[in-house]
Write a structure and sequence with these properties.
This protein is of the alpha/beta class and 263 residues long. It has 2 domains: 164 residues, Spore Coat Polysaccharide Biosynthesis Protein SpsA, Chain A (Alpha-Beta Complex); 90 residues, no CATH class. The strands form 2 sheets. Strands 1, 2, 3, 4, 5, 6, 7, 8 and 11 form a 9-stranded mixed beta sheet that branches. It has a two-stranded antiparallel ribbon with strand order 9-10. The protein is globular. The termini are far apart. The relative contact order is 0.12.
Length: 263
């Protein structure tokens, strides 16, 4: 492409040498700027990003929301596309991004994220999973939410783009469930910091509701074995999240005698 778009790509990374080249290759030819905030990777992540002309910054990990806001603030172009290192911009989505930036019809645009899981491109689970990812800097974009469930928000109208953002979610089942435990603990810590407290009924009702939502209400059963694994993983994730919340609350109560910890 003769002229790149007035577009920054914002990414945070940690040990993503296996993935980041695939991500940057899908968008590098149209972006005027690539910003990568890396939290001290021990592999070649930073070097690979630099090969694509990225401005690479090394920073201590501050949590998903604060780390992504750090990358966002370093972007200098009128438009910003926020990506994760396990995401690839599909050809149709790429054309939609080019059109959106040129027409400037809204302050931001959502994309449909389609997951590639255990060798299958899912059609029901985690889809269309619309995420606001393309934003104008003048729309005051910022990351909000709680770790690890961050969300990008803006001031102004939001549209939708055609095409898919392909999410290469997990390498295998072991990777999936190891990360699931990690994310459940992070979510529980965020809940505790927000003042939420454990109640026994949550261990039964909410994991079961998560399974029903994924497998039946979202037609996950149509994704075959992969759909069943995802529904079970949702049940396990929610169960662990509330168990970790109980554990955190129990530990604080034992160490401080704080009566609020048991409520």
């Amino acid at each position: 492409m003769e002229t790149r778009l007035p577009l920054s790509v914002a990414i945070i990374s940690f040990n993503e040498a296996e993935n980041i080249a695939r991500t940057l290759r899908s968008i590098a030819d149209i972006a005027a700027e690539i910003v990568v905030v890396d939290s001290h990777s021990g592999d070649a992540t930073r070097e690979i990003a630099a090969q694509f002309g990225a401005n690479v910054y090394t920073e201590d990990w501050k949590g998903h929301v604060r780390q992504k806001n750090s990358a966002l603030m370093k972007c200098t172009q009128p438009w910003v596309l926020a990506l994760d290192c396990d995401e690839v911009v599909g050809a149709d989505l790429k054309r939609s991004i080019i059109s959106a930036v040129r027409t400037k019809a809204a302050g931001g645009f959502r994309v449909c994220r389609r997951s590639d899981y255990l060798g299958k491109r899912l059609r029901h689970n985690w889809y269309p999973d619309r995420k606001l990812r393309l934003v104008r800097r003048s729309a005051q974009p910022r990351w909000e939410g709680y770790d690890p469930h961050d969300r990008l928000v803006i001031s102004g109208p939001v549209g939708d783009l055609n095409g898919d953002l392909i999410h290469y979610s997990y390498k295998n089942i072991e990777d999936h469930f190891i990360r699931l435990v990690h994310y459940a603990r992070i979510a529980a810590d965020s809940y505790y910091q927000e003042g939420r407290r454990f109640h026994l009924h949550q261990l039964v009702t909410r994991p079961l509701a998560a399974f029903i939502k994924k497998y039946f209400l979202r037609a996950g059963f149509l994704d075959g074995l992969q759909g069943l694994v995802i529904a079970v993983s949702s049940l396990v994730y929610v169960f662990l999240k509330y168990m970790f919340l109980w554990e955190r609350q129990h530990d604080v109560q034992n160490s401080t005698g704080d009566p609020y910890a048991s409520k």
